[in-house]
Design a protein that fits this description.
Layout: E1 4-13, E2 16-26, E3 31-35, H1 38-49, E4 56-60, E5 66-69, H2 81-91, H3 98-104, H4 120-134, E6 138-142, H5 150-165, E7 169-174, H6 177-183, E8 186-189
Parallel strand pairs: 3-7, 3-8, 5-6, 6-7
Antiparallel strand pairs: 1-2, 1-4
Helix pairs in contact: 2-4, 4-5
Amino acid sequence: MTPIIFEKVLKQTSQGTLLKNITLTIPAGSQIGLKVTHQESRCFFNLLTGKTRPTSGQLVRNDTTIMANLTTDAGYPQLTVSQYAHLFLKLSAHPVDLAAVQEALALHEVWHLPLKRLSQDQQQRVVLLRLVVLHPDLAFLENPLNELSDDGIQLYLQGLAYLRQSGVTVICTAPYLEELLLVSDTIYRYSQRD
């Protein structure tokens, strides 16, 4: 992945300015945390993926493949974890050892359960499963630790480390620094003040 560069990016909507003077370089393999509101997170994601363009400034992202886990993501509740993994494995050009992934993400005990029967902790690790299997250049995770138990957080962090070992760049957004301290190597706090 070539670096993604935001240079003095400003984004306005009919409700006003959402992001202002964003200058950020996202190097390959980094794990960056952004302390932003939910609305700012969505705006940043839409800019990052090219869904929207900056009002001003420059954004260079080249041919980076980006996948996200947004708080409003819908799943495939009727599928088992195994079926879900195999579905995405068919879509992936990246070779994956599913047995190793099961262990690394602590999903072996729920491998044959439908997604709708999983706890929130387990569902978040299934999101990591999808990212490991599809192996994007960049993973965008919105509030990844929200509503997880203490044990769920520990297992998620282990899974996130496994994802990073494969070379995936990770951007996490959250409104709280405490969450970002656990999931990021570098943290940026956004404030619209000049």
